[in-house]
Structures are given as C-alpha cells and as structure tokens.
From TrEMBL:
UniProt superkingdom: Bacteria
Keyword Hydrolase included in the entry's annotation: yes
Record's protein name: PP2C family protein-serine/threonine phosphatase
PANTHER family linked: STAGE II SPORULATION PROTEIN E, STAGE II SPORULATION PROTEIN E-RELATED
Biased composition (Basic and acidic residues): 76-90
InterPro entries (alphabetical): Bact_Sigma-Reg, PPM-type-like_dom_sf, PPM-type_phosphatase-like_dom
Organism: Streptomyces laculatispora
Disordered: annotated span: 56-90
Length: 391
C-alpha cells in the first residue's frame, strides 16, 4: 500500500527545522525503516554533508567516491548491503526541478526492498526536496549543512543572491557553478523563466571582496527590477547601467552578458556588456560566439545597448564563462582559452548540463595548478527546443 498521503501530511505539518525527523518517523511507521539520513551537497559540490551534524569534513562523504555520491551523480537510486542481517541502504536523489540538493539514505530491513517501495521512497525524496526549498526561508539548518567551512562575508552575500544551481524545463537544461565557492566576491549568474522566454545573465563586479559583492548585488537587483517590469534586455542593461552610474559616477563597473531565449523558436537575443564570453558546442565543433562588444554597466552615463540575435538548433550547448576561466594560464604561461577550454567542452559533451560546470572547473584547477587569482564562473545551457517547432 502506498503510504505517500500519510507521509506527505506528516512532512507538511512539520516545523521547517524538523523535516528530517518527520520523514524519519513516517518512514519508520510505513516501511519499518531502521534509519533515515539526509545529506546535502556543499557549496563546492565536492562532498555530501549530513543534516544536523556540525560543519566539517569528518562526517562528510565524497561526492565522487562514495555510494551516495554515485547516486547523486547519476541521479538514480543506488542500493548497497547494510550489514549481516540483510538490511539494505537505499540512496535516493533529492532534486527539485533539476537542482540537485543531496541524497536521502533509507535503511530497510531484509526483504522489504521491492521495486515499488523504492519508487515510493523516491517520491518521498522529491517531496522532501520541495519542502526544504520552502523551509529555507525560515531556518538556517539546511544552509548550514551545505558548508564544510565558513563562507567569507562576500561569498555569503553572493550565494544568497544566486538562483538555483540547476534548472530543467522541456526546452532546455541549465547548470552553473562558482569557484572558489567559499570565497567568491564579484562573479554572479541569474536566470528567470516563464512559458515563453528564458532570461539568463552573467555579471562580474569590478574589484575584490565585499566591495565587489556589493557592486554585483546592485547590478543584479537593478537587472531583476527591470526584468520584472517586463522590459527587454537592452533596456534592462541601460537601466542597470544608470543605477550603477548614479551610485558610483563611473568609478567602477560591472561586466555583463545578457541572453533572452524565445522558447518557441530558439532565437536568442544577446547583449554583451563586458568580459563574460559565450561559447557553443554544435555537433563536435566548439567555437566562441563572437558578439558585438558594448560598454560594461556603470562606466558612463546614459549608455545605450543593442541586442544581437543568434539562432539555436536542438542539441546545441552553450557555455557562459567569466574571465576567471578563459584568462587562466598554465604554469608555462598558456591561456586556458587557447589550449584547454575547447578540449574540456568536448570531453564533457555527454554529461548533463548540471554536471558540466563542476567538471570544467575541476579541469581548470588542474590546468592552473595553483590557487585561483580570480573568481571563476561557468554556466551551461543545453538547448532541446520545443516539440513541434523549428527552434
């Protein structure tokens, strides 16, 4: 018998900080679960950290070398024996609209691990993910579990400004990641979707530390304010430019790349206002998409911006990268954009969009072989197109 209705009532009635306890009690009653544990992905996407434990690596599990990590990476349930009594641990992805939050591990007694039970537990994991997203408005518990070290203040500000790190719709899939995850300051990404359009922006505030974070914060909120008023991306850029200039009189600026996707046709409008670059993988060909360079936001008073149009076809993959990616040099002085970026894009072509940014940034770290001098940001967008349309 499907116990989902009773479990759902128990979870929705739980306090925001008590969701795991509610799931644990409900699964014990419904399936005789011996243990239930929620692990959340950390900001660096390197480990899974148990909710309710003190921050630190001593209890964190590798995202790349553990059964839980394999379930997280594949986004499929994974099971393993849990002792001599025949109990089985089920590791179930906790994901919300493409955003990979973590893993729910449920230990069931011998003989209880049927295919139907696993499907029902997967539904519970989905339910828990949605409830966590809502609960984070009212508790720091889940934010705390996502960190294995203290964030800098600038990084705290940036992570609070960001949307999810992944999103999936019928026409596209998005993944994004920032490094260094615990000490970012100026780089940022943002997106918003409706039934007809998707708007994506990448921003890079000038400077370092809190000043860069404050500058980016102003730019992102100015862009959002204009976007939410139904204004096109050229005027979004112009209004954000004016807001920054009014505040700083041209002494600082924000490099920005704005994209707006028409979901029915695959037409993309682009405003290139600074340093972020756009790359495209089409088939097995990787190339930079050359855009008309325009002034960064906030540099001059009343700057005007123009939209350049691109056409996507189903199967295209776009990468938006900051200067911390393409300007990185090897110990021999070779720029990553010259030798490494295209190779990495090809090597990761079979990965889903949510996994690509982390893979690129790991490859970048190996190429650099030193601590980063700047933020590094990667946004990956896979274009599927709308069924029955040309785009």
């Amino acid at each position: 018998m499907n116990a989902r209705p009773e479990i759902e009532r128990a979870v929705r009635a739980a306090a925001p900080y008590a969701l795991v306890e509610a799931v644990r009690g409900a699964l014990a009653a419904a399936y005789d679960a011996r243990s239930v544990e929620l692990l959340l992905a950390d900001y660096g996407m390197t480990v899974l950290n148990p909710v309710g434990s003190a921050p630190g690596r001593e209890r964190a599990l590798s995202m790349h070398n553990s059964p839980q990590g394999r379930a997280f990476g594949s986004q499929r349930p994974h099971e393993e024996p849990a002792g001599r009594d025949g109990a089985v641990d089920h590791h179930l992805p906790v994901t919300v609209r493409g955003e990979r939050l973590g893993i729910l591990t449920v230990r069931l007694p011998a003989g209880c691990s049927t295919a139907q039970t696993v499907n029902e537990l997967s539904d519970v994991a989905d339910l828990l993910g949605h409830e966590i997203v809502v609960a984070e408005r009212d508790t720091d518990l889940y934010q705390g579990a996502r960190r294995i070290a203290r964030l800098t203040l600038a990084a705290e500000m940036q992570w609070q400004l960001l949307p999810a790190r992944a999103f999936t719709a019928a026409e596209y899939a998005i993944g994004a990641q920032l490094e260094p995850a615990y000490a970012i300051h100026g780089d940022n990404f943002d997106w918003a979707a409706d039934g007809d359009q998707l708007t994506v922006s990448v921003t890079n505030g000038m400077g370092e530390g809190i000043q860069a974070s404050l500058l980016t914060n102003l730019a992102v909120n100015a862009l959002r304010n204009a976007r939410r008023a139904g204004i096109g991306i050229a005027d979004q850029a112009a209004l954000a430019d004016q807001a920054l200039y009014d505040q700083h009189r041209g002494s600082v600026h924000v490099s920005t790349l704005l994209l707006r996707f028409d979901l029915a046709t695959g037409t993309v409008g682009a405003v290139d206002a600074g340093s972020p670059q756009l790359w495209r993988l089409r088939g097995r060909t990787v190339a930079r998409v050359e855009l008309d360079a325009q002034l960064p936001l906030g540099m001059f008073e009343e700057s005007q911006y123009d939209v350049q149009c691109l056409q996507l076809i189903p199967g295209d993959r776009l990468l938006l990268v900051s200067d911390g990616v393409y300007d990185t040099v090897s110990p021999l002085g070779e720029a990553y954009v010259e030798r490494g970026l295209a190779r990495t894009v090809l090597a990761t072509r079979l990965l889903p969009a949510a996994s690509v940014p982390g893979a690129v940034l790991r490859e970048l770290a190996d190429y650099r072989d030193a601590d980063p001098l700047d933020d590094a940001l990667v946004v990956c967008i896979d274009w599927f197109g709308r069924q029955g349309s040309d785009g």
